[in-house]
């Protein structure tokens, strides 16, 4: 008999500064609400907040004549726009140097935007009050009045030679011990060295072999870095000698599109040292927004996606140690802050739009600042890409926000009812997307569940089925029209498009859509946004995430149609185990449960890995490998006492369709519990039930709210009956609701 694995009882507590993260449940429309029971400790916590109006204009000439109009704003504006801040320096006296970027997004529309660094003083809103306003005290203008540059600039013929957003795209800044500023920018990408008053001291420092399309020295050469993917982030060493600029995106021609390169620059010698490190993002499109050194070799790094508002998925602060790498050679990263779930017990910034309730978030497109303050709290801030971003209130330009986050730990009792985000939080986002998985994590799931299928070239991806016509936009892609076909999958004729007929590169061009649009019309607002994740990306997200009671998020992959995939030479088991090993979660105490409706592949997996295994049980039929082998046993046979004893020889638990655990009566109400739960426990097996859904059509009659099949019913009431019967874990499309029961 394999070991007993009671839910999360042996899962290690993750050692992270942000060990207890929680969000209140989200409704089906995606709005944040307050839990009605089973309240958890909130952490981290918003303790101070301030903002600068998006419409604030600093003194200076008109700006934005060529800016793209948006959200009811059109330039030129009578003064200098401050389009948010891309980098901030703490002066330790209540003021901060806050540096915007190049203005309006490109060389072509930012020639009238002056590059500056503003001295700002927030009047913090805290639990004790405060206006929450950011005051602009003064600024320095970056300039080339000494004539250092050897290429034309916008203000070439003026005496001050003020630099503009058509000359450089400044994104990051570090203040040296002598008071000078080192600035990372993206057009080169270059490192720029300015004196304390903003005058350029030296020629820009280039990184050998790396040039963006806007590089003034490019000539006819091919760029090696896409536009706007230069030094968005840069940290400085504790002793001030070294800079660590980070390339925001992947290089052109890069084979690993999740790789971001960290470089080391010696300010004493004025040259790169040749040392570099690899950082891997959660998913290919993610970018690095900022970096800050907290101690020798240890950096905080902002990783974000380009989505905003309720579409946002990744707005995270990770800690990395340049002396530690994972099995694949990437710097190991540890979650410090998920900026999409922050406690707000003092109602700071209340009423300011999306994400400003009891659970606060900064769901802006460009989270671009992290600074660790002297008391250990974190300051985060945004670039608002004026006037284009409207994450808080649709149609209104986002203000520039400063938020101070307290990361102090809060002790909380572990919980042993396992909540599994079924295909993610599929009640709120299209299933099997990183958006759905992140939403499940925010909503207090303990595990996220990817169904696993293979591409033509053997890459494991997360899809409910290998037929993807109903879960992606493939049917709208004329280039793939010829791939539509009919196949026999587990004895059934299925017509559509199949993952095994696509290379991974081809599948990556598709976007997910809602599988049940009539039931969950709110989810269709996210159709076409999110790419199909790999199993590796799902595991990576889980191992870098923290549950609401402070433990590493688990991953609960299901092998789909393993006999079928074996028959076409695309075995699922070996690459699945390889993915677990690559992510360091292939061990008996890892928060991983692998599940399958078939039996032989679970037995194979029992010999390949020590992670927990679960036999899935349907209310009808038999495992398809039994059909192929001529074995007459059914799922009903597997849940007899002798059948369960047999399962315990290769698995640790069962995942049973809920009607197997408590059958329904002829009237559609819940009947008496079957002996399955007690018999499984007697065999040493955990029991997880599936699938618990909010809508009336999925609920027993007594828990329905009306005759409308898509309306919300009493999911809490149904789950409680199953928990009272002894069920150990819950698969739910609404993990926020499931997490409140028990």
How is this structure best described in words?
This protein has 742 residues and is α+β, with helices and mostly antiparallel strands. The chain contains 13 helices and 37 strands. The strands form 10 sheets. It has an 8-stranded parallel β-sheet. A 4-stranded antiparallel β-sheet has the order 1-24-23-22, with no helix packed on it. Strands 4-5-6-7 form a 4-stranded antiparallel β-sheet, with no helix packed on it. The model is unreliable at 1-41 (pLDDT under 50).
Primary descriptors:
single chain; 742 residues; alpha+beta; eight-stranded parallel β-sheet; four-stranded antiparallel β-sheet; 13 helices; 37 strands; 26% strand; disordered N terminus
Q: Report the structural category.
A: alpha+beta
Work out the radius of gyration.
27 Å
* Gap from first CA to last CA: 29 Å
Beta fraction of the residues?
25-35%
Q: Return the average pLDDT rounded to an integer.
A: 93
Biggest beta sheet attributes: 8 strands, parallel
In helices, the fraction of residues equals 10-25%
Number of helices: 13
Low-confidence stretches: 1-41
Arrangement of strands in the largest sheet: 31-26-25-37-36-35-34-33
Task: Please state the overall shape, judged from the principal axes of the Cα atoms.
Answer: elongated
Instruction: Give the strand tally.
Output: 37
Topology:
Layout: E1 45-52, E2 57-58, E3 80-81, E4 87-90, E5 96-99, E6 116-123, E7 133-141, E8 170-175, E9 181-185, E10 190-194, E11 205-206, E12 233-236, E13 242-246, E14 259-266, E15 271-280, E16 287-295, E17 298-304, E18 315-325, E19 331-338, E20 342-343, E21 359-360, E22 366-372, E23 378-383, E24 400-406, E25 418-421, H1 434-442, E26 447-448, E27 451-454, E28 460-462, E29 485-489, E30 492-496, H2 504-507, H3 535-543, E31 554-555, E32 558-559, H4 562-567, H5 573-582, E33 593-596, H6 600-608, E34 612-617, H7 624-629, H8 635-638, H9 641-647, E35 653-657, H10 658-661, H11 676-682, E36 686-692, H12 715-724, E37 729-732, H13 735-738
Parallel strand pairs: 25-26, 25-37, 26-31, 27-32, 33-34, 34-35, 35-36, 36-37
Antiparallel strand pairs: 1-24, 2-3, 4-5, 5-6, 6-7, 8-9, 9-10, 10-11, 12-13, 13-14, 14-15, 16-17, 17-18, 18-19, 20-21, 22-23, 23-24, 27-28, 29-30
